Amino acid sequence: MDNKTKKEQVCDWCSSLAEEEQHTVFWELPDGTRAIEISNVPCIHCSSCGMIYSTDKITKDIEDQLLLVDTKQIPKTINYNELMSLPRLLKRNYFDFFS
Ligand SMILES: [Zn+2]
How far apart are the C-alpha atoms of 58 and 20, rounded to whole Å? Predict the structure, then answer.
C-alpha cells in the first residue's frame, strides 16, 4: 500500500488523485468584523483540474476554533497551528461570567 506513505486524496471535483499542501487562506471572523489571514492551512491541491480547497474537516475545525477563542487576540496574520493552539475562552474565562 504505497498510498499510505504519501498523503494522497481524491479530488472532490474531478475524482483524480490530489495531494495535500499547505496554503494561506483568508477567513472572515464569525462576527463579521474583519478577515484574517491564516497561513499553512492543510489544503487539497488537484493538479488535474487545478482546484485548491480545504477539506470539510479543516473548515469546521477553523470555524469551531474561531467561535471559541477571543478573536480580538488574533493578529491579522496567524498560522494554522498557532490558531489551533490558542486557548479557548470557555475554559480560560469561565469565571468571568460570574464576576
Ligand atoms: Zn480535480
Answer: 12
Residue recorded with cell 500500500: 1
21-59 as b/e, with b when 16 or more CB fall inside 10 Å? Answer: eebebebeeeeeeeebebebbebbbbeeeebebbeeebe
Binning the chain into helix, strand and coil, the percentages to the nearest 5 are: 35, 30, 35
Separation of 61 CA from ligand 1 center, angstroms?
A: 23
Cβ contact 56:43 at 8 Å: no
Q: How far apart are CA 83 and CA 17, in angstroms?
A: 29
Distance from residue 45's CA to the centre of ligand 1 (Å): 8
The rounded Å distance from CA 43 to ligand 1 centre is 13
Per-residue pLDDT of 6-51, as tens digits, reads: 567 899 999 999 999 999 999 999 989 999 999 999 999 999 999 9
